[in-house]
Amino acid sequence: MSQLPNCPKCGSEYTYEDGSLYVCPECAHEWSKDAVEVEEEGLIVKDANGTVLSDGDSVTVIKDLKVKGSSSGIKVGTKIKGIRLVDGNDGHNIDCKIPGVGAIKLKQEFVKKS
């Protein structure tokens, strides 16, 4: 019998399988089997075209983006050098500095690798 992973929320060892999910009976946390594989492999971030990004890559913005608290935004075609990948819980997985805007976090679906 294969060893089931401990619950990522509470650390309980009493997890069980329910279809394509793992379930923790102690805290009622559910997570997919795919999420466990991603955790083992590390953070994988893909751009709008499905290309895997890594730290230090250069990317290009593919859509005009509004910036909160600023009258100007980020225009299509803006090139960003030296990105850092972070685990953003709200989908903002790219940390970078944009000339004229400053340090900002971006969502991966708005950039393509250049």
TrEMBL record:
SUPFAM superfamilies: Prokaryotic SH3-related domain (SSF82057), Zinc beta-ribbon (SSF57783). Signal peptide: none annotated. Residues 45-113 form the Protein YjdM C-terminal domain. Residues 3-32 form the Protein YjdM N-terminal domain. Pfam families: YjdM, Zn_Ribbon_YjdM. NCBIfam families: phnA. Belongs to the YjdM family. This is Alkylphosphonate utilization protein.
